[in-house]
Amino acid sequence: MSLVCAISNEVPEHPCVSPVSNQVFERRLIEKYIAENGADPISGQPLSEEQLIDIKVSHPIRPKAPSATSIPAILKSLQDEWDAVMLHSFTLRQQLQTTRQELSHALYQHDAACRVIARLTKEVTAAREALATLKPQAGLVAPQAAPTSQPAAVGAGGEAMEISEQVGMSSEIIQKLQDKATVLTTERKKRGKTVPEELVRAEDLSKYHQVASHAGLHSASIPGILSLDLCPTDTNKVLTGGTDKNVVVFDRREEQIVATLKGHTKKVSSVIYHPAQSVVFSASPDSTIRVWSVTGGNCVQVIRAHEAGVTGLSLHATGDYLLSSSEDQYWAFSDIQTGRVLTKVTDETAGCALTCAQFHPDGLIFGTGTADSQIKIWDLKERTNVANFPGHSGPVTAIAFSENGYYLATGAQDSSLKLWDLRKLKNFKTITLDNNYEVKSLVFDQSGTYLAVGGSDIRVYICKQWSEVLNFSDHSGLVTGVAFGEHAQFLASTGMDRSLKFYSL
User: Within 10 Å of residue 422's Cβ, how many Cβ atoms?
Assistant: First the structure.
């Protein structure tokens, strides 16, 4: 005996009985009916799912419907199944074709997007190059150009024109710098192959002793010489700057003062002797840079590039431009002929005073020292910071580039001297000095063979070995400046004891 569902008239898989009509139903069908009508399908009386009673039976094999047992019915069933399979296969092929078309379209869009990106990248690069060329022509400067003032009239008595207007670095100036750098690089490579025959040998240099001392160059009431430079083409001409606000030109051979230049309102912290002209430069905490005529004994230009004390000064290899650094956090590039500031730049991220500045021998890059122990290398043409050398633990007090252009020497208030390789951008040698040693001056000789250090005393090192070849403690005060004569034939030094000293065999 088999149970038959009162609704489908088929053998139920999950039979159940309605207590209302006592009929057997397929649970799935009766639950659906109750959900829609809430009553028994036979009696029409109210009925809920909870009232249904399951019947436990062994599941018999469901008999085929009588209509499906004939051969025509079986063929009809097979035909229907085949038609369904073919229809499903057609649908899948149609979906595959649509997916392929969508994928092809997406790949085309991706390829087109890559081409557009490549073209835009190329246009952006071209625009940046054009902007870099147009900036100098338009008189624009790199980030954080300081406000400028209008040029003042020429003062009475031949006083210089005081100008701080920024006029920008024209393409002609940039080309001039590039041409000079190319020539200097070629000459330096030729010179670097051999050491000059006239250069004093290390064993002779170690025998140097004091041969002269001059204490009357600057005022005795405010003792101290703060800066020193020798004329590159005639090292017998000595230039000093003192705490007495004066700049003094001294002839070593004649042992007499050539000129005393007065005009600064504060001490003179940096001095430079022009290699080809009878012109000298000086910088001071009074915020000015002055250009002096040695023959005339007067100031011919006053460059007001900064709003605070000028801490560093360096002459470009062309002899036409000055680099200056200041406590106002800016470095400036000025034309010495017109006294105009061509560009003025600061590093917003640093936010600290610059303590010194020095051109690389080629003149296209330069270094600055900062009060927070950093050495920054700058690209002059782009006016951008291209490298940083951290490592010191005190304010940087002096920097010097080797004549071969490969090495940079730096000194700081951490009583150490560091040597940097500009090709590898790393520190390759650190010379630890005596405790509380104050480095005030660093200079390589013209051949790049020796490095002189001025501070608590005078020390000379031979490059590559970096061994000390001589040490002088003749100054009774801090040594503020050291310089080599031609081919290191003599060594000059100045100090806070107001004396200028010379050392040789």
Answer: 19
| Distance between CA atoms of residues 273 and 67, nearest Å | 120
The helix/strand/coil state of 183 is: helix
291: Cβ contacts below 8 Å, ≥ 6 apart: 160, 279, 280, 281, 299, 300, 301, 302, 303, 336, 339
d(CA 232, CA 85): 99
Cα gap 147→164, rounded to integer Å: 9
Closest CA to 463 of 449, 453, 452, 445: 449
CB 291 within 8 A of CB 281: yes
- pLDDT of 60 higher than 60: no
Has residue 163 got a pLDDT over 50?
no
Q: Residue 173 contacts by C-beta under 8 Å, 6 or more apart in sequence? A: 136, 342
261 C-beta neighbours (distance < 10 Å), count: 24
CA distance 399 to 22: 109
pLDDT more than 70, % of the chain: 90
Structure letter (DSSP) for residue 186: H
Structure-derived torsion over alpha carbons of residues 376, 303, 446, 259, reported in degrees to the nearest 10: -150
Give the mean model confidence (pLDDT) for residues 120-143: 65
Residue found under tokens 């710098």: 177
Nearest CA-CA partner of 149 in 135, 137, 161, 134: 161
Q: Name the residue among 244, 216, 230 with its Cα closest to residue 499.
A: 216
Residue with the two structure tokens 């009878």: 278
**Mean residue pLDDT across the chain:** 87
CB 482 within 8 A of CB 220: no
Rounded to the nearest angstrom, the gap between the alpha carbon of residue 31 and the centroid of all alpha carbons in its chain is 77
175 near 133, Cβ under 8 Å?
no
User: 434-493 pLDDT, tens per residue?
Assistant: 888 989 999 999 888 999 999 999 999 998 888 999 999 999 889 999 999 988 999 999
pLDDT of 155: 40
pLDDT in tens, 359-370: 998 889 999 999
pLDDT attached to residue 186: 82
For residue 376, is pLDDT > 80?
A: yes
- 168 φ/ψ sector (left φ>0, alpha ψ -120 to 50, else beta): left
Contact yes or no for 207/219 (Cβ under 8 A): no
